[in-house]
Amino acid sequence: DNLLRRAACQEAQAFGNQLIPSSMPLKKATVFLNPAACKGKARNLFEKNAAPILHLSGLDVTVVKTDYEGQAKKLLELMENTDLIIIAGGDGTVQEVITGLLRRADEAVFSKIPIGFIPLGKTCTLSHTLYPESTNQVQHITNATLAILKGETVPLDVLQIKGEKEQPVFAVTGLRWGSYRDAGVKVSKYWYLGPLKTKAAHFFSTFKEWPQKHQAALMYLGPTERPPEEPEEKPSRPPLYVRLYRRLRLYWSSPPKEISQEVTPEDWEELKLSTIELSIATRNRQLDLTRTEDFMDICIEADTVSKGQFVNRGSQKMRDPHMCPEGSQCIQASRCILQLPEGTEGSFGIDNEEHEAMPVEVKLLPRKLRFFCDPRMREQMLHAAVQ
C-alpha cells in the first residue's frame, strides 16, 4: 500500500512542478468529504490516500467536511466560485452534492464545473464507469485522485425527480421502487448469518405477503434526438462592419416569415402496471459517447415470480441493482410521470438513498454534468463505440 501511495505521489508531483505564468491564479478545488462514509473510515482513507496527491499537484484545496445528512446541499448553495468540485464519499454524497449544485439559481454556470469523484463509500456505483476495476482499495482511491489531475472528462446524464410539493432531487444512477429494493435494505439486519444474510433477507420478505405486487400508472415520452456536441471554445466574433453587412444581406434576401409556428403536441404513452419492481435508470453504466439518441431505461419486472426465483434474483440485484431480468418490459423514455394509488406506503431508492414513495415526474437531463474519468476508461468507451 505504501509503495502504491509513493508512486501516486511521485506522479502528482510532476503536475505540481509545472511552471505557471505569474498572472495565472492557482486552480481552486473544493472537496466535499463525508467522514461518515465507509462506516466512519472515509476521513482516514481520504487523508492517507487522496489528500497528499491533491496537495502535491499544486491545487489550492479547500476541504469541507459534512457533519449531518443533507448538509452538502446547504453548503453548495453558499459555495463561491471554484474551478473543480471533488466529491469524497459514496453514492449518498454524490447525490447530495449534485442536488445542491443543480438547485442553485445559477446552475447553468455551475453545472459546467468539472466534478471529480473519490470513491470512499460502501456503494460507489459511478466508480465502475469512471475508473478501472481494482481489488486493492488504496490503488482504487489513488487512481481516482490521479484521474482528476489528468483532466479527462466524460459527460454524464442526470435524472431530475420532482414530487408534487418538494424541490426536485437529482440522481446519476436511477430510481428503484419495489420488493427487491425493500428486501435489500434489510440485509444488514441479518449480519449474524454471515454469507447467507442476503438470501435470508429476501426469503423472510416472502412471508409478508405473496405475490408482492406494486400497482401504478405510467405516462412517458419516447427518446429524444441528441444535438451535436457544442464546441468548447466559441469562435472569435467578426468585426462590426462584417456583422452589419451580413445582417443587411440576410434582411434583403429572405422573404418575410410567418411569426406563428405550429407546436407539435407531445405524444405521451400511457400504461397501467402491476410489477414486483420498477426501476428508472440512466445510461451512465453503459456509457456510449457516440449515441445519437438520449433516453433513460425504464424496467418493469413481471409480478409472476416464484419465491425461489425471488430469493435467487435478489442476490443478483444486490450486485447489479438496475439489471433487467428476462420477461421484463423495457421502455426507453426521455421523460415519465409515475402515478401511485392513494395510500401507497414504502420508499423509493434514489441512488441508493431512501426517499418517501410519492407520485413523481422524472425528466432526463442529457449530458448535464462532466465527471473526471481515467483516460484508459475513456479510451475503452471510444474504442467500443467504433467497433
From TrEMBL:
GO molecular function: acylglycerol kinase activity; ATP binding; ATP-dependent diacylglycerol kinase activity; ceramide kinase activity
InterPro entries: AGK_C, ATP-NAD_kinase_N, Diacylglycerol_kinase_cat_dom, Lipid_Phosphate_FormReg, NAD/diacylglycerol_kinase_sf
SUPFAM superfamilies in alphabetical order: NAD kinase/diacylglycerol kinase-like (SSF111331)
Cross-referenced Pfam families: AGK_C, DAGK_cat
Catalysis performed (reactions): 2-(5Z,8Z,11Z,14Z-eicosatetraenoyl)-glycerol + ATP = 2-(5Z,8Z,11Z,14Z-eicosatetraenoyl)-sn-glycero-3-phosphate + ADP + H(+); 1-(5Z,8Z,11Z,14Z-eicosatetraenoyl)-sn-glycerol + ATP = 1-(5Z,8Z,11Z,14Z-eicosatetraenoyl)-sn-glycero-3-phosphate + ADP + H(+); a 2-acylglycerol + ATP = a 2-acyl-sn-glycerol 3-phosphate + ADP + H(+); a 1,2-diacyl-sn-glycerol + ATP = a 1,2-diacyl-sn-glycero-3-phosphate + ADP + H(+)
Similarity field: Belongs to the AGK family.
Stated name of the protein: Acylglycerol kinase, mitochondrial
Lineage, broadest ranks: Eukaryota, Metazoa, Chordata, Craniata, Vertebrata
